[in-house]
Specification:
Length: 132
Amino acid sequence: MTIHQPIYVSEPFGFDDGILSGILSISRRNNARDGITGALVCRRNIYLQLLKGFKDLVEAAFARIVGDDRPLALHRLWSGEMSARLFPDWAMRDDPAQSWLWSEAEVSAGAVQSASSRDLQGVFERVARAIV
């Protein structure tokens, strides 16, 4: 069985605990319902998200995200098929973008958009290893 996996980036429209909590709450509810797992790396200047699940359900979730007014400049960076889930027990794992992620200056200069698919997947593999 293959699992569809897109990775996308966006800029937050405002960034505070209330907005983030709302996004995570809705995402976790919808993803649990649809059998989607994933992670959202977030900080003041970037949302970097990975979703995994059956292609039609993941693409429907992505379409809902595209229609949401909270993420700005949303851009799909990569999508592909994988054989396993990184976050099998997480409807939506959140991570505060530890220091190993790009700096604000690097994000502004386009480092995320020019990252390879391997680099992008590596971000989420590090998040998965950090789960305790």
